[in-house]
Specification:
Elements: H1 12-17, E1 25-28, E2 32-36, E3 46-50, H2 63-84, E4 88-92, E5 108-113, H3 130-141
Antiparallel strand pairs: 1-2, 2-3, 3-5, 4-5
The structure holds guanosine-5'-monophosphate.
Guanosine-5'-monophosphate (5GP) binds next to strand 2.
């Protein structure tokens, strides 16, 4: 899908938000929802999405929603750091299939990195063990402040 198109209510993140699909939840407030990526590029790879949005990508999003989203990302990234003590954190976001986007509900990736540990491939690695994801989500959630 290119940058043009219409929001699909059946996308996987919309289903997670509606509770139709499970997720390893890390954090939720009135504006954002954070959960573990099931094809993680590193241990602790977390996604943050706006809850009240029909934007497929960053270019379509309302300024007010973006403000809440980036503040949510900072809050969750700080918790990831506190929980997992990474050496660095990649914060990234893709717009359109040619850029690497695979799910068309705006989301931001938080990917912790450790010296000497290569980052996994985007959206194409193995599926993580749900129990491990739940444990990581709990560890990160405990550090949300
Ligand atoms: P994008 O490629 O659109 O930037 O990122 C989509 C992300 O969603 C990918 O990193 C992919 O691993 C992740 N993902 C795809 N399907 C699911 C799912 O059903 N649950 C969760 N938690 N993550 C998913």
């Amino acid at each position: 899908m290119s940058l043009d198109g219409t929001y699909d209510e059946g996308n996987i993140f919309a289903k997670i938000l509606r509770g139709e699909m499970p997720s390893a939840k890390v954090f939720e407030d009135d504006h954002v929802f954070a959960f573990m990526d099931v094809f993680p590029q590193s241990k602790g790879h977390t996604l943050v999405i706006p809850k009240h949005s029909r934007a497929r990508n960053l270019l379509e999003e309302e300024p007010q929603v973006l403000s809440h989203l980036i503040l949510g990302v900072q809050r969750v990234a700080r918790a990831v750091r506190a929980a997992l003590q990474p050496d660095g954190i990649v914060i990234t976001q893709f717009n359109g299939a040619p850029a690497g986007q695979t799910v068309y509900h705006l989301h931001i990736h938080i990917i912790p990195r450790w010296e000497g540990v290569p980052m996994g491939r985007h959206a194409s690695g193995g599926m993580a063990d749900p129990k491990e994801l739940a444990a990581l989500a709990e560890q990160i959630a405990a550090k949300i402040s």
